[in-house]
Each structure stands twice: as structure tokens, then as C-alpha cells.
């Protein structure tokens, strides 16, 4: 008995499919959903100002250490005070 040769069928990818044959099978596409538009600035409710947050002990310590390593500092107390002053000014605290 002769062995049957298995015939390999070609693999058809999406790019190889004729567009006209697939369009008939697909339902019509829906238009994209509308996106909400933000209101004009004059109609928005006013936002209360946010109070600045005081620097934490760790934040001051890290900044003072960076000042020390940068070589621009003085004593440890000077570095601490400069670090605290810099952080407070960055956050909008008044002097």
C-alpha cells in the first residue's frame, strides 16, 4: 500500500487576505464615542489655595547633607539652617 503524502495547506495571514472578501463579512464600524470637553475656565468653581507643607526633619537632614557634600556649606548648624531656608522658599513659605 502506498503512503499518502500529506499536503500542507498554505497559512493565510491577515495581510494576505483580500480586503474585499473580508469587508462583506464585517459589520459596519460604529463612529468613535464623543469625548467630554472641559468647561471654560470662567465656569469652573474657584479652587482654594493650598497651604505650603512644612519640610520634615528627614528632608532637611538630606538637604543639609547634600550641602555638606557639595563643599559649599559651613558648619553643620549653618548647613541645617540653609537647607531649611531653601526648602521653605521652594515651597512658598514667607521669610
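Sequence proposed for the structure above (95 residues):
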Amino acid at each position: 500500500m502506498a503512503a499518502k503524502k500529506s499536503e500542507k495547506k498554505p497559512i493565510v495571514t491577515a495581510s494576505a487576505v483580500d480586503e474585499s472578501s473580508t469587508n462583506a463579512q464585517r459589520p459596519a464600524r460604529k463612529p468613535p464615542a464623543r469625548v467630554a470637553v472641559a468647561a471654560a475656565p470662567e465656569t469652573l468653581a474657584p479652587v482654594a489655595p493650598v497651604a505650603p507643607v512644612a519640610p520634615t526633619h528627614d528632608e532637611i537632614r538630606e538637604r543639609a547633607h547634600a550641602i555638606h557634600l557639595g563643599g559649599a556649606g559651613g558648619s553643620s548648624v549653618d548647613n541645617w539652617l540653609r537647607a531649611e531656608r531653601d526648602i521653605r522658599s521652594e515651597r512658598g513659605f514667607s521669610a
